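[09:14] KT: can someone run the structure on this one? pasting the chain below
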Amino acid sequence: MPALTPGEERCPLCGAAFDAAGQGCRPSCPMAAGCRVVCCPACGYSFPQEGAGLAGRLRRFLDRRAHREGAP
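[09:31] RB: done, structure tokens below
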């Protein structure tokens, strides 16, 4: 798979890569302000942005740890 550019997300359901800007799930939702859930324009699947919140921090931690363990 090609690398994603900053601001781009990959749908975990269909694998489509898209620009996450303006892809909020439901603008009429009262929790929409600051919400990190995006909706895939290809299949309609809603999911939290990977770089946001606990999932993003955990991913960065694991990536740094794997990088340190792989270094000589």
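[09:33] KT: thanks! The chain has a mean pLDDT of 77.
[09:34] RB: yep, looked fine to me
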